[in-house]
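Continuing the series of single-chain predictions for the mutant panel. This is the parent chain; the variants come on the following pages.
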Amino acid sequence: MDMKNGFIFVTLIFIGLTKTVHSKEIFILPSDVIQSYHKLDANIKTLHCGGINKNALSELESFAISIPPKKIEGYNSRMDNERNVPGASEASLFFLRLSEAATAAVFANDKKAEKVAIAAMKNWATNRALTETKQCYSNKGLSKSCEKAWKRKDGQDLAPTMDSGKVQAFINHASYAYFGGLDKSETDLQTHEKIKNWLNNFQSRNKKPTGIYFGYDFGWYWPAIFKKRDKNDNCFSDDCPKKLIGKLVKKLDELILKDGALKDRTTRGDRALHYHNEAMAEVMITLELARKYNVSIPKSLDKRIEKAGDIFINGFFDHSYMDKWASVAHNSKYTPGKQRFKTDLNKLTYGTSWYFIFAYRYPNSDLANKIDKVFEIGTKAAKRDLAFGIGVGCVYQALISSQ
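Parent structure:
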């Protein structure tokens, strides 16, 4: 092979490898994580990100042939009545199983999981699932036809905003998974077009991000960043990913307090551990977005973030540890020494990725040192995440175990 042809050959190989790396790229994963993960042995990837449960896959297969709900309607402000909300439980299970299948397909190259995920999404797209849910949000903000929630202190008032917000979260998170690798699956173009049209149909129902607050994918910022994810560093408009992420990082400097508490979250009475946990998911994913888009992270944040992680893990093992914050009882009830939270983190389905991201970024933290005692090898908690639509935690767990 002469020098010219050799150069062309090597160049083509490089291009091919680049496409392989970026064809299945979840939009939050920084380049250092992607590159390190792709170097791992296939068996390690399967151990941590593959092996979807047969029952879970069977349930997702059933979603590929059954008629899906056209809407979710009936949540109250506290959202503690899901069992009585038409379409809610079915949608929750669908998107949970989809996150598991997407994880196996994208990160462990599981072709069976990929096929089932695409078939289920096609069915929901063909039947226009959830499209009849009342639309409360748009770029203009909250619709006048949707009153604000929490008209009653006990949160038992019907709240269409909760129906609308729940559906938007489901669809946004499914979009993160689909366009992170499932869109490259080997199936007919018509199927992909149906799925894309269904997901994109909900884009106009996202609220334009203005104020920054925990909840709704960090105040609707993640969907906006995702929509503009292909904008490069030469983008100077206010909706460029880099500028949006910069605003979030700046706000984190205010929301994460000196002692590691999260503003208006760690103080939520007997739900303080729950809200602290969910907010930490937004914190850690936002920081990964910052790393991905080369947004500077203030060093002053590191110590507070590590403290925030330690609050969670210490509070998990000893609920009374949360009392000094929980006693404030912000929008909640307080009972000394009591937190309403699962006793086994391996069974969590929402906001699970952050544990492994945190342990990877802060290897000397209490959480990192206790993670082996809390999570099983190849835990399901790392392979699914309703808070993001795909279990990116498995990628970080795989990297931690390989160090």
